[in-house]
Specification:
Blueprint lengths: L7 H10 L21 H9 L3 E3 L11 E5 L2 E5 L5 E2 L1 E7 L5 E8 L24 E5 L4 E8 L3 E7 L7 E6 L7 E4 L5 E5 L3 E7 L6 E9 L8 E8 L2 E8 L3 E7 L8 E7 L12 E7 L5 E9 L3 E11 L5 E3 L9 E3 L15 E3 L11 E3 L7 E2 L4 E4 L14 E4 L4 E9 L7 E8 L2 E10 L2 E12 L5 E12 L4 E9 L6 E8 L6 E2 L4 E3 L10 E8 L6 E10 L2
Antiparallel strand pairs: 1-23, 2-3, 3-5, 4-25, 5-6, 7-8, 8-9, 9-10, 11-12, 12-13, 13-14, 15-16, 16-17, 17-18, 19-20, 20-21, 21-22, 24-39, 25-28, 26-27, 27-39, 28-38, 29-34, 29-39, 30-31, 30-38, 31-32, 32-33, 34-35, 35-36, 35-37
């Protein structure tokens, strides 16, 4: 996940607009590694299995690391400046997923993550690693922050609580954590120059680090390490952003030497208008079948996880199984045991009951925890005096469900004060919102667009009110509908209701920007901030995310 190399923008832009060549890996014979069952070997069972459709999650979960612990699969993803960070996804079949928790409970890496005289947009949680250590029955999350140092968090359950185990002075860029068969912890990391570090037995310190591979100039950039030991061989799975996947193999140990092979390049993906599947991880099911879970650049929505079966050549190299020369839009579902229960849907209704937020929610930067509460709805008290939503604390976000979905919010605005702005936004580096604006003792529903940032994530536009309407009573229903299919600018629309049944369109359609450089996709966002003085509040009694 390189954001600094000058050639990166060119390679990503080229990759997102071209997807025509067949992969080198697709031309290899898909024989199985001895001792490892392959999808090809299972033939009849997979052929008669139910099918799944890609993307398996049409929400923004990028830079995936995926593992299996017993009969349960887990995955981690990048979240940048959103808090809590590094979501832990859970599945029993690799197809249906839920958000179980977050590995990083708070972004306590500096004042900018609190929106305290600085901002952390497009910083924070980048590509990181999730692993499980059987010897102590513990999950490990490892990731570098701000190119300065690496943090390790642990938990005995995926849903948490997660606690910081250690800080390591070496920043392991785009790291992959391996728990070796002898319980030793290794980390593969780097951009173009790939290194391997060995950690102490307790995982708290670095024992050794060594460069193991330099990417040939003919390949360009390699990063996004995932580290495996399979059938006695060591593998470092690497991405060429944003259009290729390569793998290194060593039979001599974790420090190499390594040889390289291309897995895929410019492969047509399963989302029309989207990019090449890349930067994910390999995972093996209980019966020995292998799968590759990657992400697909699909802006404005973000980067969507897609799944494909993998077989192995006789000399130990992975091959992604294609459909008509492409990453398939559909494959037979993995043959796994029946799930113990249905997973929690990523869409539906939230009334903010209980004492904590459900794990599918993330704040824009760290919240001020004295200014919000749940139970009988979500109460947002103003936490910032600003006329710039990008500086406002306690903006609560939810991923958009693709390809098209609608968020509807029931809002009690009776406790707003003059100067307060509260509502439902489509949040990214180009944003718009519908909500309540209170001035001179009167509240009205408004639609605002023109909230913008530049490429350094400084605010360039605080928004312009383009439509307003008078409403009576203390409650209003706000609605935003978003089309996040990739390609040309897609429209989003806003509407409101005073009875929750009949909705009135407000303002012009808002074109969702599809530039990749913000990395995170658009999100629905609930906000309440002051422009004059603190003290006001709103209560969200219902949030519903629905699809057509």
């Amino acid at each position: 996940m390189d954001m600094s190399c000058p050639h990166q923008a060119l390679s990503r832009r080229r990759a997102l607009t071209t997807a025509t060549r067949l992969t080198a890996g697709a031309l290899l014979h898909p024989a199985a590694v001895p001792g490892i069952a392959s999808a090809a070997a299972q033939g009849p069972d997979l052929a008669t299995a139910a099918a799944y459709t890609n993307p398996v999650i049409w929400q923004d979960f990028a830079d995936i690391d995926v593992i299996r612990v017993g009969d349960t699969f887990y995955a981690s993803a990048s979240t940048m400046h959103y808090s809590p960070g590094a979501p832990v996804l859970r599945s029993y079949d690799l197809v249906n997923w839920e958000v179980a928790g977050h590995s990083v409970p708070v972004l306590d890496f500096g004042a900018k993550y609190d929106l305290n005289d600085a901002r952390g947009y497009v910083r924070g949680i980048w590509a990181s690693s999730l692993a499980y250590r059987p010897s102590n029955r513990t999950f490990y999350w490892l990731g570098q922050i701000d190119f300065a140092r690496t943090y390790v968090y642990t938990a005995t359950a995926a849903e948490g609580p997660w606690n910081r185990l250690t800080t390591i002075s070496t920043p392991y860029y785009d790291a992959g954590l391996l728990v070796d068969s002898d319980d030793t912890l290794y980390v593969a990391y780097g951009n173009t120059t790939i290194s391997v570090a060995q950690l102490s037995p307790d995982g708290r310190t670095q024992v050794r680090t060594q460069q193991v591979f330099t990417t040939p100039s003919s390949v360009g950039t390699l990063e996004g390490s995932r580290f495996y030991k399979i059938n006695g061989q060591y593998y470092i799975f690497l991405t060429r952003p944003a259009n290729g996947q390569y793998i290194l193999k060593s039979s001599r140990g974790p420090f190499g030497p390594y040889t390289m092979r291309q897995v895929l390049l410019d492969l047509r993906g399963p989302i029309p208008g989207g990019g090449v599947p890349h930067q994910g991880g390999l995972v093996q099911t209980q019966n020995g079948a292998w799968h590759y879970m990657a992400f697909v650049d699909a802006y404005p929505g973000g980067r969507m996880p897609a799944l494909a079966p993998v077989t192995w050549t006789s000399d130990g190299w992975p091959v992604v199984q294609l459909v008509d020369g492409s990453w398939g839009t559909s494959y037979p579902s993995p043959a796994v045991p029946p799930p113990p229960r249905p997973v929690t849907p990523m869409t539906g209704v939230d009334t903010f009951d209980g004492s904590t937020l459900k794990p599918r929610w993330e704040w824009n930067h760290n919240p001020d925890n004295t200014k919000w509460s749940v139970g009988n709805g979500l109460t947002l008290r103003t936490a910032t005096v600003t006329n710039d939503l990008y500086w406002a604390r306690n903006t609560l976000t939810h991923r958009i469900q693709g390809p098209v979905s609608t968020a509807t919010v029931q809002l009690d605005h009776s406790a707003m004060r003059d100067g307060d702005r509260a509502g439902l936004a489509l949040l990214r580096d180009s944003s718009a919102w519908i909500g309540m604006s209170r001035d001179s003792g009167a509240a009205r529903v408004v639609m605002v667009n023109g909230l913008t940032m530049d490429g350094s994530w400084n605010t360039t536009g605080i928004g312009t009110e383009v439509a307003r309407a008078a409403v009576s009573g203390s409650r209003v229903w706000l609605r935003a509908s978003a089309d996040i299919r990739p390609g040309t600018a897609r429209p989003a629309t806003f509407s409101y209701s005073t009875d929750g049944t009949t909705f009135t369109r407000l303002g012009p359609a808002f074109p969702l920007g599809n530039d990749w450089r913000f990395f995170m996709g658009y999100r629905f966002a609930l906000f309440n901030h002051a422009t004059q003085a603190l003290g006001g509040a709103v209560r969200v009694t219902r949030f519903e995310l629905s699809t057509p």
